[in-house]
Amino acid sequence: MRYVTLLFACALGTVNAFMSVSSPRLRDAHMLHMVAGRVTSLKPAASPLLNSGKAIARSGELLIDLTTTLDLYGGGLSSAGATIRNAGDHIAQAAASCRFKTGTELVCDEIRESATCLLEASQEHFKKALTEAVADKDVTLETGIGAVIPILENAGTSLEAAGAGILQRASIEDVGYKISECGEYLGMFAGAILNLAKDEEEAQIASQRMLFASEQMIEAGNELSGNQKVPEKKTGKGWIKG
Question: How many CA atoms lie within 13 A of 229 on its CB side?
Answer without folding.
Answer: 8
